[in-house]
Amino acid sequence: MQKKKIKIVIVGHVDHGKSTLIGRLMHDTDSLPEGKIDEIKTMCDSMGKELQYGFITDSLMEERTQGITIDTTRIFFKTDKKEYIIIDAPGHVEFVKNMITGASQAEAAVLIVDAKEGIQEQTKRHAYILGMLGLEQIIVVINKMDIIKFSQKKFNNLAKDITTFLNNINIKPTLIIPISAQNGDFVVKRNNKIKWYSGPTLLEALDLFKALEENQDGPLIFAVQDIYNWDKKIIAGRVEAGILKKGDKVSILPSNKKAVIQSIEEFNKKTIITAEAGKAAGIVLKNSPSVDRGDMICSQDDLPELSDEFKAHIFWMHNEPLTKNEKIILKCSTQETVCKIKKFIRILDSSTLEEKKKKEKIKNREAADVIIKTDKPIVIKNFNKVRELGRFILERLNTCAGGVITKK
Ligand code: GDP
């Protein structure tokens, strides 16, 4: 069976141990390219240093940026259960932009905090961004536990401070794990000398994370992309959630027309019986009711709500600002409608996270919590549930902003 891939991002204040942790994860899961460890060992020896795991990461990142093609889907490490892709978070502007436009959207995050230094400025900023984006799968690791001699008391105090801070910005971390990235304690291997911590290692905890792609449990949502009138009318699209089955009773949104799936055709293949979330497929409906691009074909038993007003978080990337109530095109999956920002709840400068006093327009590189009003009702979902229906772009002649839906 193909392993599940999951995209994670590791964030934290500078020097709290991000590179060391990534190097450690790769090393301890035997995921390093051949010869890499010897190369780094020789380098550290010549500097009179013990092996620096952070150098492994730095060296690999360097190779990646020098490469002709930057492969953002490269697997960094794997376990029996999953393959992990680490998303680069070079600066917060890029990070927010990538996350929101879906260019390289992390599905889970690890927030790293130095055991001695505690919460610092970038810890706050990164955590704030994760919260703003609505990312739900977050693990906190308290690193460099060796420096505080694995003190349970110090760990508990810091864990309490972190929890309070995170709860204030609406983040509920899945776990807080004491680790030493440099020594490898509780990253992949346990440290049996530490008796007071019986929770999972970071890797065990990561393996429990869910990849956001699989939305097979939910009710069916099929996004219509194109209609082909061949010998029969084939409706091409993508299963955004649930499982498409031959014989399913469906409703076509927004018209609410009812229909039955007569057959499912996968391109260049014979007729198939089912197609699960994430798959592109062509369907034929009994009695060929009229269907348009942008329609959502959904399970009749559990219809998603149509909304024309919702809360979202947007990131503006255009020189011309967007003013409140100005009309702009919104594209979400295959749906397209004119919309406007009814209200700017708060506008932030994405590099300083300073909140703007005036809430009339959004300028280049600003991020905002907004209420959007669309001309036509559309099917939307929280982006942690159905990703393609939880994010959108705003367009004039070209893309001006990316957004994620935070609440209906
Ligand atoms: P980054 O800026 O967050 O990527 O931090 P680095 O991974 O470069 O680590 C910063 C410094 O902390 C380096 O000198 C590391 O060797 C050191 N460091 C990282 N993890 C640990 C740890 O678990 N224990 C100790 N004692 N030092 C660590």
Outline the structure in words:
The protein is α+β, with helices and mostly antiparallel strands and 408 residues long. The protein is 20% helix and 36% strand. It is built from seven helices and 23 strands. The protein has helices spanning 18-28, 36-46, 53-66, 92-101, 121-132, 152-168, 202-207, and strands spanning 4-12, 77-78, 82-87, 108-114, 138-143, 175-178, 221-229, 233-241, 243-245, 249-253, 257-265, 271-272, 274-276, 280-285, 296-299, 306-316, 322-323, 328-332, 335-349, 361-362, 366-379, 391-395, 399-407. The strands form five sheets. A six-stranded mixed beta sheet has the order 2-3-1-4-5-6, sandwiched between helices. α5 (121-132) links the parallel β4 (108-114) and β5 (138-143). The protein is globular and about 75 Å long. It starts with a strand and ends with a strand. The mean pLDDT is 88. The structure holds guanosine-5'-diphosphate. Guanosine-5'-diphosphate (GDP) binds at residues 12, 14-20, 52, 54, 143-144, 146-147, 180-183.
Bound molecules: guanosine-5'-diphosphate
Largest sheet: 6 strands, mixed
Number of strands: 23
What string gives the helices and strands in order?
A: EHHHEEHEHEHEHEEEEEEEEEEEEEEEEE
